[in-house]
Amino acid sequence: MVRLILQKPGEICTNTDVPEHVLAGPDADAELQAVLSWFSRHPVAHLYTEAIRNSIDYVLDGGRTGRFDLLSPDVHPGERASVGAKLEYEVLRIFDLPKAQPLDTLIANVPVDIKATVGDNWAIPAEAHCQLCICTQIQMRKNRHRSWLVRTHRSWLHRGKGNRDGKRGLAVDARNNWSVPLYDWANLPVNPLRYLTQEQAVKVLAKKPGQVKRLLMMFRFLEGRIIPRNVILTVGAGNDDPMRRARQARDEAVKEGLTILCGDWVESRDQAAARGISLQAGEWIALRDGADGEVD
Question: Do 45 and 145 touch, CB atoms closer than 8 A?
């Protein structure tokens, strides 16, 4: 394979669709520096983690489908790819950014495109060539993600016409040499249902027995792990009021020495804190009476 030789900062960009301009490296790009300065006032990795998690949950739609693993064979590749489209809107919401043309948003009054991939590269549309892009990479098998800010000069994209929409990938050397990391690899929380064995998952997600018994099984199998609200909805997919059934499972668990705590209740948060566990609103955890407070 012939290695792609890129033009370097200081040379003229080969983009013929916009006025001739000099390739600017990150340090000499005033707009890029302004956007970086804006992000420096935010916990970017934490907020992106929340946005990605929400996007994945949205695509899986566990409360209706019972799905909990984006890599499962019952998730169409097109659905996986749609995580990036949903992420754009989650980023706008979580960072309180406007939806604004000509790209996705304005940050520090600078047009910025928001791109994400669950693979190795991004499809940069023609309107974003030579513009600022946030490029996020999500590695589901390693449960992590990272993001860069980069000026996607046409000279730094793969040659040719791209796909039928004119989208072209970002050259690896451009990403490595002339982008700026918004944050390094950050952990992506694992849906606790992925810790179940195949046999356990079949039992927990079966149509029978009823929700209370299946939720109790789940809490038993996942003892000591924090369970987000979305997991409760996934186990109760297609049924009425799974959260009410979870509260009923809490009462049943007491009979076998299992305490189920919910972060929606002050008493539960206090009990969790006494065991060294930080339990947030919407989170659940099952703890064996007398067991140490070690949380996975």
Answer: no
| 9 assigned to some structural domain | no
pTM of this prediction?
0.88
Q: In this structure, what DSSP letter does residue 238 have? A: T
Q: Does residue 248 have a pLDDT over 70?
A: yes
Q: 82 to each of 30, 50, 79, 264, 271, how far by Cα in Å?
A: 32, 17, 5, 32, 40
93 and 183 in a single domain? The answer is: yes
Weakest mean pLDDT among 65-69, 121-125, 178-182, 229-233: 121-125
Which of these three, 171, 187, 203, is where a domain ends? 187
Per mean pLDDT, which range of 2-6, 99-103, 236-240 is the poorest?
2-6
Q: Are residues 91 and 217 in the same domain?
A: no
CB 5 within 8 A of CB 172: no
Residue 17 lies in a domain: no
Domain that holds residue 30: 26-187
Q: Identify the weakest region by mean pLDDT among 13-22, 27-36, 156-165, 258-267.
A: 156-165
Q: Is the same domain home to 94 and 216?
A: no
